[in-house]
Amino acid sequence: MLELSLDLTIALALVLIAVVTFVANRIGVLPGKSIPVFVGAIGAVFGLLIWRTRRADALEARLRELEETARAKQKELEEARKRRDIAEQELNAALARLEQQKDFYAREILRLRAADEAERQRIAGLSTLEVFEEYARSRVRP
Total structural domains in the chain? Predict the structure, then answer.
């Protein structure tokens, strides 16, 4: 679960060196009092700076990768929208053709059922909605 990258390992090693140097100086194993502690502290600070820099670079690289993936997904989405729009246009055209056919057949049925020429002329002048209403009424009648 906890992955230690090379940068983090280096930073931790430098911190460990600083701690060991500090403890060794406090025990009295190392000569001089301030030099080993200063060197250890400097090493730890540089280690942390290196780790932070590398970590930031790694995160920026990951961010660029995610942005590139997001742009690719956006392109795919736009292409899918275009395909959907085309399919929707084709569907609307097919529905319009179906409505025209239904209008034609309902109008023809009403003309065939018409008793005289005046009735046929009246049916020819009806709008599509009026044709369907008239057809629906004619189907209800016995």
Answer: 1
